[in-house]
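Deliverable D2.4 — example input (C-alpha cells):
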C-alpha cells in the first residue's frame, strides 16, 4: 500500500511541476487506517508546502473548522494545527515525495510541524539535496517519529530534476506542442488549459528563447496574459539575421528586454536560471544538446491516420498526464 500512497503524492506533485520555481515540486498524502484522507501538493513558492496543505485538508475531513478552512498562509496553518490538533494525527501517516524541510525560510519548517502534531509515521521518497533545508529526517527520528525513506525513490527523484538543475546552475527546457500525427503548424494546437499553464510558466522565466523564423511567420506576442502574475519574461530571438519587423507584438511588451543573436552564451549567464525555449522540430534539433528537459504537449483532439512516435525524438519519457480530455503533457529527458 505504501507505494500506492506515495504514487498518489507523486501524481499530485507533477501537476505543479515548473510552477513552484525556485522551489521543488512536492506532493504529500495523509492516510489513517490505510484510507486516504488527503492528497496535496506545493503549488507556488512562498505558499504552504505540500505537507502543510495535506495536514490541513486531512484535519478538515473530521472537523468542520471554518477558521482553519479560511487560513491561507503557511505560518497561520502551522500555528493553528499545533495549537488545535486534538491528537487527531496520532494514528495518521504521511507520505511525502521529498524530505520535510528543516528550516524556517519564507515558510515554517515542516519537520517541526510533524513533530508538534505527533504524526504516527512519515514515509519519504527523496532526501533533500539542498543542504539549507535538509535534516528533516534527523529531526523526526530524534523526536521519536518513525521514518521510512526511499519509497518510489526513482520516481520521486525525477520530480526534482528541474530543482536540482536550477539550484546548482540553471534549468533549460524546450516546450513543444504537436498534434497526434506530429504536425505543429497552423496556429494554436492545444486547448486553453494548456495555454494557461504555459503562461503561468512564462510569468516566472528569466529568459524565453524562440527561433527567428517562428517570430517572422507567427508574429507572436509571447506574453503571460493568462497567468495570475502577468509578468513578461525577457526574450532571446535565436537568429543570424537581426532585421525584424518592430510591429511584431513581442516587441511592444513593456518592461521586457529582447535580444537577437545566434550566440547561445547568454544561456550560461548566472542570472539566467530558469529558461524556456519554444519552437518546433527544427529548433529542437539545433538546440537539443543545450537542454535539460523536453516538455511536450500533445493534442488528441483531431482524428489522425497515423500517430507520431515520441520515442523518435531521442528522449525518454519520465512522466505524463492528461491536462484535460484532449491535451496530454509529457516530461522527457535525454
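Example output (designed residues):
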Amino acid at each position: 500500500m505504501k507505494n500506492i500512497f506515495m504514487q498518489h503524492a507523486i501524481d499530485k506533485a507533477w501537476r505543479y511541476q515548473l510552477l513552484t520555481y525556485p522551489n521543488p515540486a512536492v506532493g504529500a498524502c495523509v492516510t489513517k487506517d490505510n484510507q486516504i484522507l488527503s492528497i496535496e501538493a506545493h503549488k507556488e513558492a512562498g505558499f504552504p508546502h505540500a505537507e502543510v496543505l495535506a495536514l490541513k485538508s486531512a484535519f478538515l475531513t473530521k472537523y468542520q473548522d471554518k477558521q482553519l478552512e479560511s487560513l491561507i498562509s503557511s505560518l497561520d496553518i502551522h500555528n493553528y494545527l499545533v495549537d488545535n490538533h486534538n491528537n487527531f494525527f496520532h494514528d495518521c501517516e504521511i507520505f511525502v515525495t521529498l524530505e520535510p524541510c528543516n528550516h524556517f525560510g519564507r515558510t515554517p519548517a515542516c519537520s517541526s510541524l510533524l513533530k508538534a502534531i505527533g504524526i504516527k509515521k512519515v514515509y519519504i521518497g527523496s532526501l533533500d539535496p539542498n543542504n539549507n533545508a535538509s535534516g528533516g529526517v534527523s529531526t523526526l527520528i530524534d523526536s521519536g517519529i518513525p521514518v521510512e525513506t526511499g519509497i518510489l525513490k526513482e520516481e520521486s527523484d525525477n520530480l526534482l530534476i528541474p530543482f536540482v538543475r536550477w539550484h546548482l546552475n540553471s534549468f533549460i527546457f524546450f516546450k513543444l506542442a504537436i498534434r497526434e500525427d506530429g504536425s505543429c503548424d497552423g496556429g494554436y494546437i492545444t486547448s486553453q488549459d494548456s495555454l494557461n499553464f504555459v503562461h503561468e510558466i512564462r510569468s516566472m522565466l528569466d529568459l524565453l528563447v524562440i527561433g527567428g523564423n517562428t517570430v517572422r511567420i507567427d508574429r507572436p506576442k509571447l506574453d503571460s496574459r493568462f497567468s495570475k502574475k502577468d509578468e513578461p519574461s525577457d526574450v532571446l530571438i535565436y537568429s543570424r539575421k537581426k532585421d525584424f519587423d518592430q510591429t511584431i507584438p513581442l516587441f511592444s511588451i513593456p518592461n521586457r528586454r529582447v535580444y537577437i543573436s545566434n550566440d547561445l552564451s547568454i544561456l550560461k549567464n548566472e542570472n539566467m536560471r530558469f529558461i524556456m525555449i519554444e519552437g518546433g522540430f527544427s529548433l529542437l534539433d539545433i538546440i537539443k544538446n543545450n537542454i535539460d528537459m523536453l516538455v511536450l504537449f500533445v493534442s488528441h483532439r483531431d482524428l489522425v491516420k497515423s500517430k507520431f512516435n515520441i520515442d523518435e525524438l531521442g528522449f525518454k519519457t519520465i512522466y505524463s498526464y492528461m491536462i484535460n480530455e484532449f491535451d496530454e503533457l509529457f516530461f522527457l529527458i535525454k
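The chain has two domains: 2-165, 170-333.
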